[in-house]
Amino acid sequence: MKKILAFALAALMLFALSACGKKETKTLTLATSADFPPYEYVDDNGQYAGIDIEVAGKIAEKLGMKLKVENMEFNAVVTSVSSGKYDIGMAGLTVDEERKQSVNFTDPYATAIQVVIVKENSEIKSVDDLYKEGASYKAGVQLSTTGDIYFSDDIKEGKTTCTVQEFKSGADAVAALVTDKIDCVIIDNEPAKSFVKANQGLKILETEYAVESYAICLSKNNPELLEQVNKALNELIADGTVKGIVDKYIPAE
Ligand code: ARG
Prior knowledge:
Blueprint: H1 2-22, E1 27-32, E2 41-42, E3 48-49, H2 51-62, E4 66-71, H3 74-82, E5 88-89, H4 97-100, E6 103-105, E7 110-119, E8 138-142, H5 146-156, E9 163-167, H6 170-178, E10 184-188, H7 189-198, E11 202-204, E12 210-214, E13 217-219, H8 223-238, H9 241-249
Parallel strand pairs: 1-4, 1-5, 8-9, 8-10
Antiparallel strand pairs: 2-3, 5-13, 6-13, 7-10, 7-11, 7-12
Helix pairs in contact: 2-8
Bound molecules: arginine.
């Protein structure tokens, strides 16, 4: 009898143990637009890299989850997170009142500035030149970005007589600038620096266009995950992890 009991117990323990082992790690899906160095891009080895990708990895680690990167066009990031298709959106994404209607945001983790890229010999010397009477410059932007929203609004409101052309990516806009199809590109400062570095004959105007902050977006239907992600993010900011990642990608000048 004792033997049978011992055997049954051992079998039970084995069963419990194997059930434990099978417990799989959950996946945290990240919606991003990997066309925005140094925040997110595809590196020379074809791997996703950048500040957002690494911070998202650390957040997943803290939540005991495995990160899966889902790459898409920028204008799909907010909509696909809002619909619940992906868990979090990180794409150098500016906290913006209109986006707040469809998604929740964590606390901000970075500050950014919208700047204007021109050719080195450009007539455009400052942002004000875009707002001068009768100005007819063509500004390139990435579709649905804040640069696009601000400048398109200014045109609609009659604040500028310039025109805007929307591109799929910042790199496409920059390529159009290089080949003189447009006169300037309005984009976030860090990607601007990286595009100017990658192309000859470009510069960034000194006047800043707009200051904003980046945060992670989540579906409105998942307040628990918002709280968990926000907590993890704030811990990573407090212990210097985020700064370490930023310093790695944006070396002090
Ligand atoms: N910060 C700007 C915005 O939120 C531009 C972001 C573009 N991000 C990207 N991964 N292409 O609208």
